[in-house]
């Protein structure tokens, strides 16, 4: 059932919700054309096992098309660097050799590793780039879910834990303390790529953009003048009913990411297992339908939506209590089969639930 029609003035004054253009998290308000000839240019390309789509404001005097294509090229280059599915990537070279000796790391990637280190500490280990062996043990790495034996799980856990990674901030290098450790950027890579793309677009004179990877992680900068919106509109999908939306966000110079296990899961022995694994226990996290996080950067939103799914409501509440610039929306199950929508640090003018 589609959301009701309304005016953007109604949305901004809290009277009603504006309509999104799609059912995904990456939806936009109507494009139209602004009084200065502004219109939204839409470019897209597959990368990182999903579709990256960039909505970039152009005007009659400034064609942002070449910059948008350059930004998509940058995403592809970052995928080449971060992927664990290509033997020649920088990350795979790290995984092969960092247990033998320190490996120098490209500055941008090293900054991302430092951010991952901070997030690991802040979330009490709920966010951990070394959790790849667990994804393999549960069959999610190859999208063939299975329940591992206790011996297999213990073998995987023996190589998981950020404490097995050493970062040398002077040399900008990384080293593992033992063989078998590996890093995987699946839980932060899309957000990082979107941050870098948004930075490049700003440098090329395109500061007004909404960028998303797979509809689940977005970076919004500037505003959509073509639609008369002081920001960008993004719809929130219902995790239980495909094609429906729960509500809509107004994003202003921030990032958004949603994590859930609705699309990557399997059922065995009558029990459902999702792909979001708690690296502290080695087992899939439970008790949450979806988590949406709004944060200053795409990398932070991407990582924290995963961490909050693992931490659950109480853990996320504690985190947000100490981080006023991080906001969250949880969709939680209720005993009757419905959903309970709860928010953290989310002001009324930034979010609207559909009736």
Automatic annotation (TrEMBL):
InterPro entries annotated for this entry? ApbE, ApbE-like_sf
Kindly state which keywords UniProt assigns to this record, in alphabetical order: FAD, Flavoprotein, Lipoprotein, Magnesium, Metal-binding, Transferase
Catalytic activity reported = L-threonyl-[protein] + FAD = FMN-L-threonyl-[protein] + AMP + H(+)
Q: Which cofactor does it need?
A: Mg(2+); Mn(2+)
User: Where on the tree of life does the source sit, at the highest rank?
Assistant: Bacteria
The keyword Metal-binding belongs to this UniProt entry's keyword annotation: yes
Which of this chain's residues are annotated to bind Mg(2+)? 187, 302, 306
Q: Which GO terms describe its molecular function?
A: metal ion binding; transferase activity
Q: What is its EC number?
A: 2.7.1.180
Quote the cofactor binding remark.
Magnesium. Can also use manganese.
Q: Which family is it part of?
A: Belongs to the ApbE family.
Q: What is this protein called?
A: FAD:protein FMN transferase
- What's the gene? apbE_2
């Amino acid at each position: 059932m589609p959301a009701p029609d309304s005016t953007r003035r109604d949305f901004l004054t809290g009277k009603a919700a504006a309509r999104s253009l799609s059912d995904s998290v990456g939806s936009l308000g109507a494009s139209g054309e602004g009084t200065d000839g502004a219109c939204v240019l839409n470019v897209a390309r597959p990368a990182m096992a999903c579709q990256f789509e960039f909505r970039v404001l152009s005007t009659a005097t400034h064609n942002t098309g070449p910059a948008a294509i350059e930004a998509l090229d940058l995403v592809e280059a970052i995928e080449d660097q971060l992927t664990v599915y290509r033997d020649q990537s920088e990350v795979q070279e790290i995984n092969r050799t960092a247990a033998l000796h320190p490996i120098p790391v490209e500055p941008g990637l090293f900054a991302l590793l430092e951010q991952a280190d901070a997030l690991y500490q802040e979330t009490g280990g709920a966010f951990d780039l070394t959790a790849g062996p667990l994804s393999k043990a549960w069959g999610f790495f190859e999208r063939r879910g299975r329940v591992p034996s206790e011996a297999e799980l213990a073998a995987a856990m023996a190589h998981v834990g950020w404490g097995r990674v050493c970062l040398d901030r002077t040399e900008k290098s990384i080293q593992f303390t033992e063989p078998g450790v590996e890093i995987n950027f699946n839980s932060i890579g899309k957000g990082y790529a979107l941050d870098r793309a948004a930075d490049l677009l700003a440098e090329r004179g395109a500061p007004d953009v909404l960028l998303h990877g797979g509809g689940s992680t977005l970076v919004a900068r500037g505003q959509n003048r073509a639609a008369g919106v002081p920001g960008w509109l993004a719809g929130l999908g219902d995790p239980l009913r495909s094609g429906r939306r729960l509500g809509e966000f107004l994003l202003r110079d921030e990032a958004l990411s949603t994590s859930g296990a609705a699309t990557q899961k399997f059922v065995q022995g009558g029990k459902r297992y999702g792909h979001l694994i708690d690296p502290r226990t080695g087992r899939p996290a439970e008790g949450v339908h979806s988590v949406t996080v709004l944060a200053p950067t795409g990398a932070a939103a991407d990582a924290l939506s995963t961490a909050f799914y693992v931490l659950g409501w109480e853990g996320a509440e504690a985190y947000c209590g100490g981080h006023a610039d991080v906001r969250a929306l949880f969709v939680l199950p209720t005993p009757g089969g419905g959903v309970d929508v709860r928010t953290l640090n989310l002001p009324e003018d930034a979010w609207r639930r559909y009736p």
